[in-house]
Amino acid sequence: MQQKFRRASLALASTMAGALILTACGGSDDTAGAELDSNVDLTQQTLTVSNWAGYYPEDMAEKFEGEIGTPLTVANHATNEEIMAKLTAGGDSGIDVAFVSGQFAEALNEAGLIEPINAGFVPNLSNLYPEAQNLAYDPGNKFSVPYAWGTTGICYRSDLVDEPTSWLDILEPGETSKGKVTALATERWLMLPAQKALGFSANTKDEGEMEQVKEKLIAAKPSLLAYDDTTFYSRLVSGEANMTVAWDGWCNYGTGDDPNIKFVIPKEGSDLWADTMVILKTSKNKEAAHAYINYILDPVNHAWVAENILYKVPNAPAMEAVAGLSSDFPNMGMTPAELLEGEALVDLGEAGPMYTKIATEVTSS
């Protein structure tokens, strides 16, 4: 298994849209984008891409230049918040293509900071599942292209507990599980179990609903072992925990060590998260940027993510190539239709600070 990596906000955390509205100039009403040159010499362009460390092959820059001819530099960012701060600081960040989660791409677009995708320069868009071409944060992939997608559920030890069926199994665990349950601290996923258990949207902006969410989470805290976004699967392997709130791909890390570790989506439903690729308006290498996205969407290249990171990719032929993974990691076999049963996370806009405030109140209570 590829070395495990950490994306502190995984893909989707608290939104920065409020700050973007204040700092960026105008919205994104211009969808035409820059005129691209189909005859450009890509060897005369250079490309800088910012991605999460460990989320791409180590030899990608070398292979991309060898195949496309464009020198490529890969910069790493640890979280969505880190790269967003760089992209919204004003001026040219020096980044041509950035990897951000769906609602962050939406916020960047609203701020007018990213380039519309010219589908004519990305023929491999045809490899995307139809469902991946109409995601809620960017219907039609007008300004972003999905790289990986998944959902959130409960990762559990099937040899220690019965299969959990509800988010209440996390929020109100039985006596044998008290002190053996972990939750996620990252804002959107800290809220998710209570939002779904209470029948609310994962994107709710209603203050009354979020007050109920806060009360539910505070009441659940005494039964928790920890808030753990990074080592929960290790706690399952050791037996310290028997149930954890988990992203599907991260649960696979535990399953790889102990097949008794399984993943389930509670009956109340869950989310749909996506990590995306966007092109910055300030890029002077937009043809090469499109060529890079097209390169990623090649089935052989895109399959690397599923095979090495154990995250599903929204690329039909790429997933067909690694279909055997589902025998060891069943959630890798989830279909696009099953994923779309989850609620797509979108930008919270001006409600973002409310989530931040509640998260602080819950975790510090």
- Provide the number of structural domains: 2
Radius of gyration: 20 Å
CATH class of the largest domain: Alpha Beta
Helix-strand topology string: HEHEHEHEEEEHEHHEHEHEEHHHHEH
Q: What name goes with the CATH superfamily of the largest domain? A: Periplasmic binding protein-like II
Span between N and C termini?
38 Å
What level of helicity do the residues show?
25-40%
Return the CATH topology of the largest domain.
D-Maltodextrin-Binding Protein, domain 2
Return the average pLDDT rounded to an integer. Answer: 91
Low-confidence stretches: 1-30
Query: Major β-sheet, in short?
Result: 6 strands, mixed
* Strand content bin: 15-25%
The rough form would be described as globular
Number of strand segments: 13
Give a concise summary.
This protein is α/β, with parallel strands linked by helices.
What does this molecule look like?
- The protein has 365 residues and is an alpha/beta fold.
- It has 2 domains: 200 residues, 3-Layer(aba) Sandwich (D-Maltodextrin-Binding Protein, domain 2), CATH 3.40.190.10; 118 residues, 3-Layer(aba) Sandwich (D-Maltodextrin-Binding Protein, domain 2).
- 34% of the residues lie in helices and 16% in strands.
- The protein is built from 14 helices and 13 strands.
- Strands 1, 2, 3, 6, 12 and 13 form a 6-stranded mixed beta sheet that branches. The chain has a 5-stranded mixed beta sheet with strand order 9-8-10-7-11. Strands 4-5 form a two-stranded antiparallel sheet.
- Strand 1, helix 2 and strand 2 form a beta-alpha-beta unit.
- The N terminus is likely disordered.
